[in-house]
Amino acid sequence: MVETAPAWPLRLRGSADPEGVWRSRREDGGARAVRGERRSSRGHERRPQLPPPRALAGLFVWRLRNIGARQIPSRFVHLYHVASNRLITFQYFNFLKRMLQQLDQEKKVVHKISSVSPVHQSWSEMSSRNELREMKPAAETEDSVIPGGAESKEDRQWKEMKLRLDDLPGILARLSKIKLTALVVSTASAGFAMAPVPFELTCFLLASLGTGLASCAANSINQFFEVPFDSNMNRTKNRPLVRGQISPLLAVCFAASCGIPGIALLALGVNPLTGALGAFNIFLYTCCYTPLKRMSIANTWVGAVVGAIPPVMGWTAATGSLDAGALLLGGILYSWQFPHFNALSWGLREDYSRGGYCMMSVTHPGLCRRVALRHCLALIGLSAAAPVLNITTWTFPVISLPINLYISYLGFRFYRDADRSSSRKLFFCSLWHLPMLLLVMFTCKKSVLEKEDKGELRGGSHEMAMEIRLP
User: Is 337 helix (H, G, I), strand (E, B) or coil?
Assistant: First the structure.
């Protein structure tokens, strides 16, 4: 027989390739292990191998997912049907919540501990006494004020407002902004008193009454237009038209009943120029200033013009003409309104933004503070111009300088700090600054009186006027 060569090259110990020797030995051992497995598989059956634990866990999770995907929707549908059958709905829970709140808000009745009744009293007497004791507080509560819970419930529900004649004067006073109307009449009176003519009581009363009626008409129309916006502001949400205490038709009728007689009184009882100024001021306030409040910050300047017209009306009511003194008084009122209103609006910025009004304090806070400071300083210049225009003596700028410097200082504080404290100080200062400034101006004014007695004049000449200084 011919011997076959081995399948791998044999090398002797100490050969030059030891790694090849050890590699061949490993391969030979692997081949023999494979042959042994083949023999064992022929002689014996192969045992089944169990999957590893990780595979079992994955199979279990997959099974749960399949079962949940099929059964969970059906269970939710079943729970929905059960809940609907038992009235467990969102509306039902809301109803229970409202009932619980009403129970909490109801007035709690405090029962006093009564003395122990004698033993000899019968059961009927005790029960009747208890019933009387329970009926007494119930009758008292019905006669007294309604509890807070019931009152709040009635407020939430719609109900028809009934107007009583006893409440009508107060409602109309709030509709016409009686405090603002009083300020307008007082400034018109100041303009009448500053005029260099003799004082006539009848003309003064007619001018004051006509100006007040015109102001009431303008304020009523303003509230009629601003009802949807006033309801969003805390400052104006209690106005009569917002609360429904008066109907819009009655408010318009009240405005017409004040405006038409007021303008007629000024035009016919005083003079046509004063009546024309009053009609123009109503138009400017209702048709220009009111809609402009929601469009541009220019509404502040337009509103200042509206506030500057009443002293001009007082001057024209006394003199019948527009003079430099009327324009000076209007200028003082015009400049005074900027620190007054800008300081007021600074503390009401949230209200104005909630109501949708375009105010300087909301959209341009820096400009709001600068304008207030400028017009505080302008009051000093206007006061100094009064003796130049021969309206007052030179003592007026000197006496009015301290109060003008003080309001200018508060205007600077408001410009520098820009907080609620400085704005409140400036606002409250403006409340007493204007009447004091007008009072000082009246005490220092110059007046010209016409002498109607020609026999007192020398040489039969007619002297038209002479200048006097009031004490």
Answer: helix
Mapped onto helix, strand or coil, the DSSP state of residue 62 is helix
List the pLDDT tens digit at each of the 471 positions of the chain.
444 444 444 444 444 444 454 455 555 555 555 455 555 444 444 555 555 666 666 666 666 666 655 565 566 555 555 544 544 444 555 566 666 666 666 545 444 444 544 444 444 455 555 554 554 444 444 444 444 444 455 555 555 566 677 788 889 999 999 999 999 999 999 999 999 888 899 999 999 999 999 999 999 999 999 888 888 888 888 889 988 888 899 999 999 999 999 999 999 999 999 999 999 999 999 999 999 998 899 999 999 999 999 999 999 999 998 989 999 999 999 999 999 999 999 988 888 888 888 899 989 999 999 999 999 999 999 999 999 999 999 999 999 999 999 999 999 999 999 899 999 999 999 999 999 999 999 999 886 554 344 333 333 333 333 333 333
Alpha-carbon distance 37 to 44, whole Å? 10
Instruction: Write out the DSSP string of 95-144.
Output: HHHHHHHHHHHSPPPPPPPPPPPPTTS-HHHHHHHHHHHHHHHHHHHHHS
* Secondary-structure percent of the chain, ordered helix, strand, coil, rounded to 5: 70, 0, 25
- Sign of the C-alpha dihedral computed for residues 452, 456, 461 and 466 taken in this order: negative
pTM score of the predicted model: 0.63
- 404 burial level (CB within 10 Å; 0-12, 13-18, 19+): buried
Task: For residue 381, give the H/E element and its range.
Answer: helix 365-388
Which residue has 């541009």 as its token pair? 296
3-class secondary structure, 466: strand
Report the DSSP beta bridge partners of residue 449.
Answer: 466
CA distance 236 to 243: 10
Residue among 340, 399, 407, 360 at smallest CA distance from 379:
407
CA distance 210 to 120: 81
Number of Cβ within 10 Å of residue 398's Cβ equals 14
